[in-house]
Amino acid sequence: MSEISAPAAQDNAVRERKPVGGELIIPIAGLLFTAYYFTAITDSPWTAQVSAYFVGAILTLLIAIFLVKTFIAVSGGRADLGLGQLIAPKEFVRKRLILFGLMLAYCYLVQFGGFTLTTFVFMTAGMIVLTDGGNKRFIAILCAFLAFGGWALFILAFDTRFPDGPFEKLMEWLL
Questions:
Q1: What pLDDT is stored for residue 28 in this prediction?
Q2: Is 0.90 surpassed by the pTM of this model?
Q3: Helix, strand, coil: what percent of the chain each, to 5?
Q4: Between these two residues, 45 and 87, which has the higher pLDDT value?
Q5: Residues 105, 129: one domain?
């Protein structure tokens, strides 16, 4: 009998490294945003600065722990910096790129269209992409309610300074 048990065969096989490169994108972006935020709040009241530095310090600490853990896994041969599931399966890459483009467009266009209308258009377009164009009427109605709810919560209730657009100006005039 020359059969090898399953656990022994697994030990003898070359261990496949887990691709962790895609997992680094959000923490690194979070670290960059935190650094930007620290520089952007210098003119804010001191209470806002204290809160921002406290939250930013915790976020930075957590990201540092994650990066050290990842470095140990990569240097130990258990992981590599490949993108893995970020670019696979291939049929999702197109949708991901479209959503990324929509996000960039949202960030640029929100200053012109205002929070509510731009949010409505972005969410509607994103959901249509994710559902392959299914049930557009339901999606539009749902996104209209969500965008209106966002306006009611953030702008009306919390008086958050989001970019004004035609909808916000109309509502200000009506109210």
A1: 93
A2: no
A3: 75, 0, 25
A4: 45
A5: yes
* Three-state secondary structure call for residue 18: strand
Structure tokens at 29: 């972006």
HEC string of 24-91?
Answer: HHHHHHHHHHHHHHHHHCCCCCHHHHHHHHHHHHHHHHHHHHHHHHHHHHHHCCCEECCCHHHCCCHH
Arithmetic mean of pLDDT over the chain: 87
Q: Tokens at residue 161, please?
A: 């300074």
The domain containing residue 108 runs over which residues?
Answer: 89-175
The CA-based angle 116-114-98, given to 5 degrees, is 75
Tell me if 118 is assigned to some domain: yes
Predicted pLDDT at 13: 47
